TrEMBL record:
Keyword Membrane included in the entry's annotation: yes
Biased composition, class Low complexity, residue ranges: 233-258
Residues forming coiled coils: none
Protein name: Rhomboid-like protein
Database matches in InterPro entries: Rhomboid_2
Annotated keywords: Membrane, Transmembrane, Transmembrane helix
Region annotation (Disordered) ranges: 233-291
Residue stretches spanning the membrane: 49-67, 93-116, 128-152, 164-182
Superkingdom in the source lineage: Bacteria
Organism, as annotated: Streptomyces ramulosus
Length: 291
């Protein structure tokens, strides 16, 4: 009986390994959307400016289809960034001209916005994306209308060209398409840049219209916006992007390893050492072992 008692008293608890658990986001939360509705909401929230602009263009496109051709021409003429309007109310027409479509259709721009504007906004952030498209839209407008003004002054264009209809979002689209060059790396960057230059520069060799000058100028402005791309992470601020955390068994307030709630557990404190459980009174099973 004494031998059994000594054997039971000499037993020491075995050290256990620290388990690392990866905390997953709760099911059904905003961090882990489920189903098509959740993925769509995440897709829209990651590029709010792009899809808000698309929504406005959808409304204005519906309004345009309700007008007769003569009424529509007069309506858009008041919002055109022509020479006359730029001289009298530049701020108003520069803003309102980017809210109406001229040529193509809304479904086409829905595809283009998802291919160009949405990736650029997610990569650059809404503020820098707005800076790029605003600079391209305003800069290309003034450059193209300046070329037209020179043509009018030299007699290459009629005097009535000061009221030329000029609305749309293509200048901003060209600038954003060009700045996406810096999103790519390696040979793909140079191939993409050559494609953008060929697409917007080729019409200058054939048409030489003032809008062709504007599109090429917008692309060049987009290339010049490279300083705005510095520090763009591409994934920063993405909803649902949570870094996994691990439970490493940090020490409790008493200095001994334990759980986060302060309760001690049997964990290894170092090589070859172990922290036992708190002392407890012997029960029936311990009494049987001692007999």
């Amino acid at each position: 009986m004494r031998a059994r008692f000594k054997l039971a008293a000499c037993r020491i608890p075995r050290p256990t390994r620290t388990r690392h658990r990866t905390r997953r986001p709760p099911t059904g939360s905003a961090a882990s959307p489920r189903g098509f509705a959740g993925r769509l909401r995440t897709h829209l929230c990651r590029a709010p400016g792009t899809f808000l602009w698309l929504g406005i263009l959808l409304v204005t496109s519906v309004i345009m289809h309700r007008f007769s051709p003569d009424v529509l021409t007069d309506f858009l003429q008041q919002r055109s960034t022509n020479i006359h309007n730029l001289l009298h109310s530049p701020g108003r027409v520069l803003l309102t001209s980017a809210l109406w479509l001229d040529g193509g259709g809304w479904p086409l721009y829905f595809v283009l916005y998802n291919l160009l504007h949405a990736p650029a906004e997610r990569w650059l952030g809404t503020r820098r994306w707005l800076a790029v498209l605003g600079t391209a839209h305003i800069g290309a407008t003034y450059l193209s209308e300046g070329v037209l003004a020179v043509a009018i002054h030299t007699g290459a264009a009629p005097r009535s060209a000061v009221n030329t209809l000029d609305v749309g979002v293509s200048y901003a689209l060209a600038g954003v398409a060009a700045v996406l060059t810096y999103r790519l790396t390696g040979p793909w960057r140079y191939a993409y840049a050559l494609g953008v230059l060929a697409f917007y520069g080729a019409p200058l060799l054939t048409g030489r219209g003032f809008t062709d000058v504007g599109h090429c100028a917008a692309a060049l402005i987009g290339f010049a916006c490279r300083p705005l791309t510095r520090g763009a992470s591409g994934t920063a601020g993405r909803p649902g992007a949570t870094a996994p955390t691990t439970d490493t068994g940090s020490p409790t307030a008493t200095g001994a390893p334990g759980n986060a709630d302060g309760s001690n557990a049997l964990r290894t404190a170092g090589p070859g050492t172990a922290t036992p459980l708190p002392h407890r009174k012997p029960g029936i099973r311990d009494a049987r072992r001692m007999t």
